[in-house]
Amino acid sequence: MASKSILLRPHSLPITFLSPRLPFPKSLLSTTPSAVVGNLSFSTLPYGPSLHKGHLPNPLKLPNPPSVQDTTTNNNVMSLDEDAFTRVFDISALRVPSDLCFTLENRLRGHLLNWPRIKNIARVPGDEIDNQFKTLLPKSDVNDESGTLVAFNRRIYGKDEGDGQLLSPVLYRDKLARAFNSKGYVKFRNLAKISRPKKKKKKAEVDSYNGNKREKREAGRNETALLVVVTEEEDSEGEDLGSLLGEEFKVKKWRGPTRLLLLDERYANKGTRELPESIKAVLEEHGGQSTMSEFELVKCKLTLFYNYWQQNEILEVLLPKGMIIPSAFETVGHIAHLNLRDEHLPHKNLIAKVVLDKSKPKIQTVVNKIDAIHNDYRTMQLEVLAGNRSLVTTVVENGLRFQVDLAAVYWNSRLATERQRLLSCFTRDDVVCDVFAGVGPIAISAAKKVKHVYANDLNPCAVDYLERNCILNKLERKIEVFNMDGRRFIETIFASQTAQSITQVVMNLPNDAAEFLDAFRGIFTRNHRQRTLPRIYVYGFSKAQDPEFDFHERVRIALSEVAFEVEMRKVRLVAPGKWMLCASFILPESVAYAKTGSLL
After folding, report:
1. In what helix (H) or strand (E) does residue 500 lie, and over which residues does it extend?
2. Which of 173, 404, 444, 524 gives the lowest tally of CB atoms within 10 Å of its CB?
């Protein structure tokens, strides 16, 4: 048996290469709780690729599932065997002339593979060059289909730069003419040698299976599948369609470029007589439209690697049967923030490894929140599960950059939409007072739009990052930063004779913000310069059956006032039965000028 390998890349035309047989380790998964491997019938499983279908390249022995105690104690040394998720599928393909491949793809769409992230059209290695021209090449070039032959093939189309050969002067001049823009010649050959760093040479590693040195193969982010065309020796190559479609379809030596149309999985290991009449009719109709009138049914092996499978598909195999698959997580810069359930904790390192692999290169660190927020600084206790241990990152939101240290300050990316909605309520003449500013996601964003911003936070680390972010976004002249208790800040800023007239007040501290509303009672009796009654936006949580009514009553009780209008809005469902709400209202005049207010 001989085989030709084709590397499939999603969302792009496949690039062909000749690959040796990939080695697979003897161990399947060093910590696989429940892996289902074996040859299962396609009819018993849903359509499409699955880790429960196909077979492993080599028979591997499944280890015994580890106990919960062993999993907990050995969490730090767990490893995931990526080769254990390699699956091989037997499929069939039609070898057709390249000039008819797209037409036939549209006509046979319902009979093709149609798997996600897998193209229905694949290239056959070495078929871009006619057989009569292969004799003009050196003997070594004809045999090495993945080397010089492919480079020569690409050279025909002027695309061989990067294969180790330079373009001919004519093709290079044509390339420069197409790449000319306002900055001059893009990627000029001589300038590239000066400006670009030298490429690192790939280190050779010792093959643990045959003891020979081999080039280290690291699957790129798009190297997800490999198609191997299985060909019989000599004249038995492929299935002869001549007996079914006529003598003009009899298999001959191919001349010119061809393509493979991957057929549906239900046609795997079937002969030409078992193909539907609709396929035969289409092939017969298009048989005379090409310079080559041959069609060939070939058998293929489609190998799907670890990079092909989605996060939920891998976790479904790794986690015990019946366990909820964790799928959602919060992204903060390069950090993925998980909120794992108690049932997931014995497998937290495996989950983190899969999340990290499937989210690279954007995600570099995976953390899990250990406990709820109980301190005044709103900092979270986080455990680093995978990746680098740095919790300092940069977040881009609304065109602004924010430096954040998740170990010392609070940040919630899920409130980005709410922050954007809040900013839409401000005008250029507003003066905003952010009582619980944190690192400044609202204060700094508002500073780009409003007249002036007063920002405060009790956490000294948050204030430090707030000042950094003001400078980072060049808005330090429009923001005044304070580090004090929220109640004291409200009384101080409204009592200040130099402060501008405040029109908007934001109190984004859902746990305790409503308790600070009593600081507004009698706030204007100490400053007669303030004439405009500010609009207050206060956030809070509620677990009541009617959360809007519950939070509405808490706001009225805190202000000791009933006769004023409050606009209630549900922000998001934080947990089952727990809502985050926003109450906005104009500070009642009876509250602002009340005689009961007093300075602390």
Report:
1. none
2. 173
Which residue shows structure tokens 């920002």?
A: 455
Q: Is 155 annotated as a binding residue?
A: no
Residue 98, pLDDT > 50, answer: yes
Calculate the CA 356 to chain-centre distance.
Answer: 10
SS3 71: helix
Segment 483-496, tens digit of pLDDT:
999 999 998 998 88
79: Cβ–Cβ under 8 A, 6 or more apart, which residues? 30, 31
Look at residues 343, 339, 320, 344 and name the one whose alpha carbon lies nearest to residue 329.
Answer: 339
CA distance 101 to 298: 15
Which residue is it, tokens 């390192």?
A: 349
419 labelled binding-site residue: yes
pLDDT tens digits, residue range 132-148? Answer: 555 555 554 444 445 55
d(CA 36, CA 43): 17
Query: CB neighbours of 436 closer than 8 A, spacing ≥ 6?
Result: 456, 457, 458, 486, 506, 507, 508, 509, 513
Neighbours of 377 (CB within 10 A): 15
- CA of residue 339 relative to chain centroid, distance: 18
For 361-379, how does the pLDDT look when each residue is reduced to its tens digit (9 = 90+)?
Answer: 899 999 998 877 777 788 8
What's at 428, amino acid-wise?
R
486 annotated as belonging to a binding site for a ligand: yes
Please count the other Cβ atoms lying within 10 Å of the Cβ belonging to residue 590.
13
385 marked as binding residue = no
Q: Comparing C-alpha atoms, which of 204, 159, 165 is closest to residue 178?
A: 159
Comparing C-alpha atoms, which of 592, 529, 541, 536 is closest to residue 570?
Answer: 541
Q: Answer whether 8's CB lies under 8 Å from 14's CB.
A: yes
Identify the DSSP state of 415. G
The sheet carrying 2-8 orders its strands as: 15-16, 2-8, 225-231, 296-304, 87-97, 258-262, 121-123
What are the beta bridge partners of residue 568? 583
Tell me the two tokens of residue 163.
Answer: 């294969």
pTM over 0.85, yes/no: no
Is 375 annotated as belonging to a binding site? no
Q: Is 398 annotated as a binding residue?
A: no
Burial class (CB in 10 A: 0-12, 13-18, 19+), 270: middle
Contact between 275 and 195 under an 8 Å Cβ cutoff? The reply is no
